[in-house]
Amino acid sequence: MPAFDSDQEKFAALDAQVLDISVDSVVSHVAWQKKDIGPIQLPMLSDFYPHGAVTEAFGIMREGSPVPGISERAAFIVDKNGKIAFARVYPLDHQPDNDELLRELEMLNKAA
User: Fold this and answer.
1) pTM for this model (two decimals)
2) CB burial class (10 A; 0-12, 13-18, 19+) of residue 4?
3) Cα separation of 3 and 96, whole Å?
4) What is the pLDDT of residues 15-62, one digit of tens each?
């Protein structure tokens, strides 16, 4: 999240809004910021109740090891018509590549 937060202006320049969605509660998000990552300006959304409804809709609920019941680490670009224009699932120990996502957004903007 800190990398997305620091690149917020780059995403905004491409007419994009970055959102974080996880199955963690709002309380967990606040504690994570206070204890681990520092304040984040980007919206952090909770898919806590009903547990994982958005995660399930996007098809990224982890069912197997090592941590079932959480979402895969994934990045989606949803266009202005609500269509998923880009989707990638990353290993849990990898962060999405902001440069890759910015390139995808540039290509989508050129094609529009």
Assistant:
1) 0.85
2) buried
3) 9
4) 999 999 999 999 998 898 899 998 889 999 999 988 999 999 999 999
Residues in the chain: 112
Closest CA to 71 of 81, 79, 82, 63: 63
Contacts of 8 (CB under 8 A, 6+ apart): 18, 41, 42
Please check the confidence at residue 1 and state whether its pLDDT lies above 90: no
Chain-centroid distance of CA 110 in Å reads: 23
* Omega of the bond leading into 66 within 30 degrees of 0 (cis): yes
**77, 85 in Cβ contact below 8 A?**
yes
How far is 74 from 106, CA to CA, in rounded Å?
19
- Res. 112 pLDDT band, cuts 50 70 90: confident
Residue 59 Ramachandran class (φ > 0 left, ψ -120 to 50 alpha, else beta): left
Q: Which amino acid is at 74?
A: A
